[in-house]
Design a protein that fits this description.
This protein is α+β, with helices and mostly antiparallel strands and 92 residues long. 35% of the residues lie in helices and 18% in strands. The longest helix has 10 residues. The protein is elongated, with a radius of gyration of 21 Å. The N and C termini lie far apart (56 Å).
Length: 92
Amino acid sequence: MPFFKITLIRSAIGLPTKTTGVLKALGLRKRMATVFHPVSPQVAGQIMAVKELVAVSEVEEAMSKAEFKATRKPDPGYYIETSATEALQPRI
C-alpha cells in the first residue's frame, strides 16, 4: 500500500489560519518534521492546499519514528573490527 511521505520545509508563521489548520490536520508542527499518510484523495487535497510549504514523495511503506531516526543517523567515521580483550588474549 503506497504512502505519502510529507516533510514540512517552510514555516507557516504569518500565514492564514486555514493554512495552519491544514498543517495541523496533517500532523506537521515543526519544520523538517516528516509524517506518512496513506495515498487518498483527501490527503492529496490537503497537500495541494499547502504545496508551497511541504515536500512530498510517494513511498511503498511507512517508517516508524525509530526507523526514520535511524536513517538520519550519520556514519560514525570509524569501525571496530575486534575488541581489545580479544586481541590481547593468548591463543592456544
